[in-house]
Each structure stands twice: as structure tokens, then as C-alpha cells.
């Protein structure tokens, strides 16, 4: 028995519309999506007619994508807001001292901290590869792209720390 599994254009459009409608009502509010406090609540739990009030930038999306690698979203929110308060632009991150970058990142991605175990150990958790790559990436964007995030996958992949997945996410998530 042969089955035709090809989707008709009307079926694809209907499924897409239904998924987007569901997402609009059920997504979690997150700072990198332009939402205001409180974070981590569902949109349907907010006042009727709520719309994210803040502009979503390519830089903010990039930071969130890197922070969310191997780290729970509810953990990332606090670090993300601290990071963006300290380094609100690519230029501010590019110009930062590496020690300042590490200090703001400290604890993110550390299994002990993520499980609430803030032990006084020597050496403390110092897994800063993602922070270092963001810092180097920001310097690269300032030097090669005059501070503007490129809009295509191939150019994004030239930035230190951005591979095919992150480049694809940035292109897909940003409304240039």
C-alpha cells in the first residue's frame, strides 16, 4: 500500500497558523523576547492584550542563545539581565576588560551553582568559554562589521563562537 504524505499548501498554512496562535498565547515571557517583568510566566497569565514592550535586538538574541547552551532557561534569566545591564550593546561588551566579562558570567553553567550549591571550593567554577567567545565575538563584530550583526548565516558563522545552529537561530529569530 502506497501512501501520499505530501502536505498541501493549505494544510501547511493551517498548521502553521494554529502553532503560531498557540505560541502567542502559551509562550513564556523572557527578557530576550522583549518582555517586561515578571519573567517565566505564560503570556495567557498576563493582562489581556499584552504585547512585549521592548525591542528585540540581534545582540540580545545572540547573548541569550549562547547563555542557554547547556543551561536551564530559568537559571539564564538572572544572568542575562545582569549581563545586559552591564553590557547593553556589542560595543560595550567589545570594550570590556576580560576580568569584568568573567565576573559578570561567574557561576553560569556551573553545575554546583545551578543546583544551589554555592560551596566555597578551590578552585571555584570557572567555565567561562562561552563568555570568552561572546567577548571575542563582540570585538570581531566591531572590527569586521562596524558593530552591526550580519544578517546572513555565512557571515554570522565567521564570528568566534557562532556555529551553524546559532547562526540559523539568529537569522530565524530576528526581525531585521
TrEMBL record:
GO molecular function: 8-oxo-7,8-dihydroguanine DNA N-glycosylase activity; adenine/guanine mispair binding; iron-sulfur cluster binding; metal ion binding; oxidized purine DNA binding; purine-specific mismatch base pair DNA N-glycosylase activity
Record carries keyword Membrane: no
SUPFAM superfamilies hit by this protein: DNA-glycosylase (SSF48150)
Protein EC: 3.2.2.31
Domain HhH-GPD residue range list: 63-142
Principal EC category: hydrolase
Catalytic reactions on record: Hydrolyzes free adenine bases from 7,8-dihydro-8-oxoguanine:adenine mismatched double-stranded DNA, leaving an apurinic site
Keywords linked to the UniProt accession: DNA damage, DNA repair, Glycosidase, Hydrolase, Iron, Iron-sulfur, Metal-binding
GO term, biological process aspect, one: base-excision repair
Names of the cofactor(s): [4Fe-4S] cluster
Record-level GO cellular component terms: nucleus
Superkingdom in the source lineage: Eukaryota
Family stated for the protein in its record: Belongs to the Nth/MutY family.
Protein name: Adenine DNA glycosylase
Amino acid at each position: 500500500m502506497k501512501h501520499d504524505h505530501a502536505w498541501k499548501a493549505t494544510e501547511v498554512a493551517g498548521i502553521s497558523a494554529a502553532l503560531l496562535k498557540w505560541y502567542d498565547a502559551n509562550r513564556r515571557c523572557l527578557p530576550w523576547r522583549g518582555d517586561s517583568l515578571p519573567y517565566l510566566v505564560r503570556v495567557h497569565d498576563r493582562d489581556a492584550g499584552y504585547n512585549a514592550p521592548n525591542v528585540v535586538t540581534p545582540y540580545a538574541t545572540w547573548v541569550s542563545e549562547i547563555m542557554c547552551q547547556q543551561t536551564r532557561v530559568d537559571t539564564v534569566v538572572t544572568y542575562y539581565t545582569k549581563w545586559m545591564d552591564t553590557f547593553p550593546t556589542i560595543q560595550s561588551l567589545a570594550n570590556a576588560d576580560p576580568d569584568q566579562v568573567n565576573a559578570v558570567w561567574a557561576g553560569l553553567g556551573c553545575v554546583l551553582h545551578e543546583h544551589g550549591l554555592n560551596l566555597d571550593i578551590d578552585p571555584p567554577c570557572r567555565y567561562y568559554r562561552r563568555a570568552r567567545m561572546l567577548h571575542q565575538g563582540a570585538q570581531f563584530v566591531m572590527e569586521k562589521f562596524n558593530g552591526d550583526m550580519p544578517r546572513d548565516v555565512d557571515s554570522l558563522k565567521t564570528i568566534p563562537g557562532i556555529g551553524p545552529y546559532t547562526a540559523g537561530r539568529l537569522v530565524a529569530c530576528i526581525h531585521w
